Amino acid sequence: MTTDHSGSASSPLTLRDLDALEVDRLKGVGPKRSAALAKVDVRSVLDLLRYYPRRWIDRTREERISDLVIGEEAMVVATVQRVDQRRLRGKRTMVTVVVGDGSGRLTATFFNQPWRARQLSEGMDVVLFGKVDEFRGALQMSSPVVDLLGDQTGRVVPVYPQSEKGGVASADVARLVEEAIRRSRQRSIADPLPDEIRRRFGFVDRDTAIVGIHTPEAMTDVADARRRLVFDELFSIQLELVRQQRDRQATEVGVDHAPSGLMTGKLLQSLGFPLTGAQQRVIREIVEDMQRPHPMHRLLQGDVGAGKTLVAVHALLSAVEGGFQGAMMAPTEVLAEQHHLGVSGLLAGLEVHDPNSLLGTRPLRVELLTNGVSTADRRRILAQTQSGDVDIVIGTHALIQDAVGFFRLGMVVIDEQHRFGVEQRAVLRDKGPDGSEPDVLVMTATPIPRTAAMTVYGDLDVSVLDELPPGRTPIVTRWADGPLDEAEMWSHVRDEVADGRQAYVVCPLIDASDALEVRSVVETHEELIGGELHGLAVELLHGRMTSAEKESVMSAFRSGDVDVLVATTVIEVGVDVPNATVMVILDAGRFGIAQLHQLRGRVGRGTHASTCWLAGEATTSDGEARLEALVESTDGFALAEIDLELRGEGTILGDRQKGRNDLRLASLKTDREVVTHAREVALELLDADAPALEALLDDAAVLLGGEETEYLRKN
Ligand code: ADP
Ligand code: MG
Question: Which ligand lies nearest the alpha carbon of 302?
Fold first, then answer.
């Protein structure tokens, strides 16, 4: 028996086999071409086969030039007859290309694309796709899509992504792919997906899919191939995530919690309001997790203002009840400080068991660890955390990760804002007592769509807080996109302040540098105190201020001594001042939906009616759609779906997915249903311990890439 996956020389080729074949084994790939291919991350035959066409030229839809209809879009295949380049006024250039196909001639014009003159030359066969119009009696296309046909034949011609510098032409890739397909034909490509599943979804087999995506006979082949390959990508991820989750449950030893409910009971009594039904349900889920033998790995999703903090505090306190410590990690210092204040307030007066004290108890201790804490204090807090004298430590991701040793860490809450990676989470596991691993609760700042959550956090159990506490007056959102509206906006701010309320003004998002951002916020502040907000107590808050400065401004704002806080997005997450009823976001078109929603969530936290003003014009149609969505909806879950619709998955997956190359064809935007199916099939096959699992898991390992899986395997 062998565990070698390369199989025998005649068995069908697995993905691992294909990955083991270097691309330079193919004809015509010498050192130079293999270097060029490496630049586009094609090293193995598998990489090549997964280097999918960017689009396909459907030559069955090709038209003769003589048949073209003015005003309609069309595709022609023709030979270049002449290329001219002209300078226009200013620095503009125009390249004119005359092509002919025997039936007639057509002129393609390109403005400000001087490189076209180098790309195209006489005698080349090209494909032009664009709208046909007429100029001085001649047929013309302006700035059509151009593909070089090379010597490619076939009814549907694949067009491969081409990097300008990469130096691998689409036609070269096509030829190499064809050769790879031809040479794999003898052994054929293995398909470990069980027949039953294939039939259920009407999938073609893997071999057919690979052939179909690269050398289709018709566009329907492409569609069939894509459906199968998209499934494979998403299924690999789900299979690996679910497997990981199961492995963890089977192998990891959790902390022996003893949530007595004594302290949490006191906490709940002291609140002055009942928990929402959703909070009760989620708290129950967490307490049940804590009593299981393996550690909790749970994601807490909830809309802004749904009361996630209280759920987190309840979890930390439940750990403390059993004699363990808790840690809470925030993405920013401001937020860590805010949590520290909030948590200390909630837990004030609680006592913990302490055999060394005369009374047998001592006050529960919550400490803050940020860069703002003095070196001496920090040293003391670290030492006392190590000795177990501190019960709950609150800090930023960075601090808790590196520096802290715990006496008996039992519960970690990560307030995440998409910034905390899988790798970092692993670090925490070393911090539990005697080989056991602390429970982990991850909270997202704003909801993310279900399919994205399933892909990014698919190894976690999910709790959803889908209910806002009662008594909130809904936030009215207004878009001020002209001077009149803006005048009304500032007068509204002044009115609210006159009524004893407070306001935030968030300054434009500047991606350039910290320094620029600070300048912009300082300038805005000056303009406002000299103008629209003259006479009010207006203070500044930005990331370049020291922690002490930030804290003093925040506490002045909390206590009502400051009327208006002019800030950068440092206030984005978590800031909780119920008396603030106006949020003004300047140049709102530059912010993303999630960020706007999060910023808006800083108001509407008390009993007074609140307003969010989105100021400025939207510079793009997407920007306009974003602002309109915000005006229309205050439901974070609905907004998250719109966000995915507008932006695609890239930004939503964010840092967590950086460097992962597992989504080549699949899109969380258009293939949502497939994500769900992939999850279902993964669960089904793992539950049934299906015979195909070993091969499928190996596929996943190959598709998800070396580092990733090695990491996943290690854990
Ligand atoms: P988020 O989910 O955005 O983190 P928070 O935890 O900051 O929300 O809670 C928002 C506000 O709602 C806080 O002021 C908190 O005290 C309050 N709150 C939390 N739970 C309830 C509840 N069940 N009833 C009333 N107010 C609540
Ligand atoms: Mg919060």
Answer: 1
User: Cα–Cα–Cα angle for 209, 215, 216, nearest 5°?
Assistant: 75
pLDDT of res. 425:
61
Structure tokens of 663? 């989504």
Give the other-Cβ count within 10 Å of 510's Cβ.
17
Beta bridge partners of 28: none
Residue 295 corresponds to which tokens in the numbers above? 């550690």
What the chain holds in terms of domains, given with CATH numbers, is: 1-56+162-189 (1.10.150), 60-153 (2.40.50.140), 475-633 (3.40.50.300)
CA–CA separation, 335 and 338 (whole Å): 5
Residue 451 CB partners (closer than 8 Å, separation 6+): 644, 668, 672, 675, 676
The CA R_g of the chain, rounded to the nearest whole Å, is 30
CA distance 548 to 374: 10
Measured from the CB, is residue 604 less than 6 Å from ligand 1? no
Phi, psi of 97 (to 5 degrees): -125, 125
Partners of residue 443 on adjacent β-strands: 300, 415
Q: Are 603 and 611 in contact (CB under 8 A)?
A: yes
576 lines ligand 1 (CB under 6 A): yes
Q: Rounded to whole angstroms, how far apart are CA atoms 621 and 371?
A: 41
377: its two tokens: 């204090």
> Sign of the CA dihedral 621, 627, 630, 636?
positive
309 touches ligand 1 (CB under 6 Å): yes
CA 415 to ligand 2 center in whole angstroms? 8
Q: How far is the CA of 174 from the centre of ligand 1 (A)?
A: 57
CA separation, residue 543 to residues 61, 447, 521, 571 (Å): 57, 25, 10, 10
CA of 303, closest atom in ligand 1: 2
Distance CA 667, CA 547 (A): 41
Nearest C-alpha neighbor of 82 from the set 120, 111, 113, 122: 122
605 within ligand 1 shell (Cβ under 6 A): yes
Could you give the C-alpha distances from 92 to 85, 264, 479, in angstroms and in order?
Answer: 11, 71, 38
Mapping DSSP to helix (H, G, I), strand (E, B) and coil, where does residue 479 land? strand
Over the chain (715 residues), the average pLDDT of each successive run of 10 is 50 94 89 89 93 90 93 94 90 93 95 91 92 92 87 83 73 92 92 97 97 95 97 94 89 90 94 95 96 92 90 96 93 83 90 84 93 88 93 85 83 75 62 81 86 85 91 89 93 96 87 66 88 93 82 91 89 76 92 89 89 90 91 92 78 47 79 94 94 94 67 42
Per-residue pLDDT at 417 = 62
Q: Establish whether residue 469 lines the binding site of ligand 1, counting it when its CB lies within 6 angstroms of any ligand atom.
A: yes
Q: In b/e form, how buried is each residue of 468-494, taking b as 16+ CB within 10 angstroms? A: bbeeeeebebbbbbeeeebeebbebbb
566 vs 542: CA distance, rounded Å: 9
- In a 10 Å sphere around its CB, with 0-12 CB exposed, 13-18 middle and 19+ buried, how is residue 546 labelled? exposed
Close Cβ partners of 296 (under 8 Å, ≥ 6 residues apart):
254, 286, 289, 290, 439, 440, 441, 461
Give the side-chain half-sphere CA count within 13 A for 206: 23
To the nearest 10°, report the CA torsion of 403, 409, 415, 421. 60
Contact 98, 139 (CB under 8 A): no
Pairwise CA distance, residues 341 & 321, whole Å: 21
Strands 325-330 and 409-415: parallel
**Which two tokens mark 254?**
């959790």
- Which residues in 448-459 are b (16+ Cβ under 10 Å) and which e? bbbbbbbbbbbb
- Check if 176 has its Cβ closer than 6 Å to any atom of ligand 1: no
pLDDT, residue 3, reads 40
Length of the chain: 715
Q: Which amino acid is at 192?
A: P
